[in-house]
Structures are given as structure tokens and as C-alpha cells.
Amino acid sequence: MGGRLTRVFRTFNVESRARREISKEKPTPAPRHPTSRLQELADHPEIQEEIYRKDDRLLTFLKDVYVESRDPPVRVKDGGGEHLPCKQEEKRLTKLGHLADLDVKKVPKGKISIVEALTLLNNHKLHPQIWTAEKIAVEYSLELKEVNSLLEFFIPFTVQEFPKETKKAI
């Protein structure tokens, strides 16, 4: 409520107030600080001479100053190229199923993509005799220990539909 009231007073007679401000004469600017010291120096040659004269006492002080700096010894790491790849990482083409558009096309050896992980988990769940840990390790270029851990700790989701009779019982 207060905002509406203040807006009314703020916008009342805005155009005429703006015209009145614009039609006023411009105020005279404040006087500038004298910064033309260069002109003053040109008028007094003794100041110019003082500026360019060398002071022998200050020069001797400057000559007495001696700065000695030592950098710490540079240590060269034995494995100098740790962050640089010494050889190209071997990549393999992914084994893509019906989700080929969603997945990457090349994966480093020893790793799998998400789509491949879901596919191999589902294959192992549906046909555990065919898709054993050894076959999966060979097929996807993985270590057997990692495949066993993957099959033990990761389980794909299952959709369960209850018959109509049991829905009523629930």
C-alpha cells in the first residue's frame, strides 16, 4: 500500500519538473586545482638544475648497497615426465547394444562405459552359465578381480509385476 502512494507522489508532474531542470542554466564548474607545475619549473631554472644535478653523497650510499640473492638449488625429479603420457593409451571399441546412440564409441582398455556395464550385468543376471566372470573379463578387457567385485556388489534393477489377486491381498 505504501509503495503505491509513494509512486504516485514520485510520478506526479514528472514531465514539467524535468523540463524545468533541463531549461535551467548550467551551473559553473568548480575551479580546477593548479596542476601546471611543469610551467612553474620552466620559469625557475634553479629548480630544473636541482632536479638534474647528481648528489655525490647519495651516489656513495647507493654504491655501498650490495644485495646478494641465492635461489634454492633446483632439484630435478627422477620421473620428470610423470604428467606427460609416455605412450598413447590403448583404446578399444565399445560393444554396443540397442543403446548405441547414448554411449561413447571408444573406451580405454581396462575400463567400461555405463551402457556396457549395464549390458554385462544384465547378461550375467539372465544367463550366468554363459556370461561367467572369466568370459566377461576377456570380452571387455578387464581384470578378473574387478569383474568379480562388479558382479558381487552391483545388481541391475528388476521390474516386478504383481498379479491382480495379490494386489488385493496387499
Q: Could you please describe the fold and organization of this structure?
A:
This protein is mostly helical and 170 residues long. Among the domains are: 36-65, no CATH class; 91-153. It is built from nine helices and two strands; from the N terminus they run H-H-H-H-H-E-E-H-H-H-H. A two-stranded antiparallel ribbon has the order 1-2. Helix 7 crosses helix 8. The longest helix has 13 residues, at 114-126. The model has no long low-confidence stretch (mean pLDDT 78).
User: Approximately how much helix is present in the residues?
Assistant: 40-55%
Sequence stretches where pLDDT stays below 50 over 5 or more residues? none
Global structural class:
mainly alpha
Identify the quaternary structure here: single chain
Roughly what is the average pLDDT, rounded to an integer? 78
Q: Over all CA atoms, what is the radius of gyration?
A: 42 Å
Basic shape: flat
For the largest beta-sheet, the strand count, sense and barrel status come to: 2 strands, antiparallel
Number of strands: 2
Distance between the termini: 56 Å
Estimate what percentage of residues fall within beta strands: under 5%
Protein name: NADH dehydrogenase [ubiquinone] 1 alpha subcomplex assembly factor 4
GO biological process, one term: mitochondrial respiratory chain complex I assembly
Subunit structure: Binds calmodulin. Interacts with NDUFAF3.
InterPro entries: NDUFAF4
